[in-house]
Here is the input.
Amino acid sequence: SNSNDFDGREDVLVPCGLANGIRGVVCVAATFAKAPTVLCSHASKLARFGSPDSDVVFPTPNKVAGEWVYAKEKWGSSAASAAVAGVVALMTSFKNFKPEDIDRMLLNATEGRVRTKTGYEMTYGVLRPDLAVKQAIAEASLPQIRSS
Here is the structure.
């Protein structure tokens, strides 16, 4: 688990420790929608940033009377990660950015500090999707420098 006692990469191997070693992969910590700087679960010191993921309605693989059944998740990182993936998809629709550029823009689009329910502060902030998309638009609009 990702408890407050874990400080180094060797302490938390899955999932953030694994994600941080893979180019183009980021670890997203789930935060509460109504309190976006508060983690939904335990500390995740190796996450890159937080993203709201509470009270999310999602489809299930079940049907009742031919209709899909929807469920409401209290919290978890699944919807937070999916939301961030959607933001990245929108960003790359403007330009085929390198993974390092996406990572930089996402990190530059965070604010505040995420903390645990007990107030322990993490080293990262909460992603502001609007700022990430604005940055992608601005960078995609820059003139290309051609080498001769």
Observations:
- The chain has a mean pLDDT of 84.
- The chain has one domain: 16-139.
- The domain at 16-139 is CATH 3.40.50.200 (Rossmann fold).
- The longest helix spans residues 77-94.
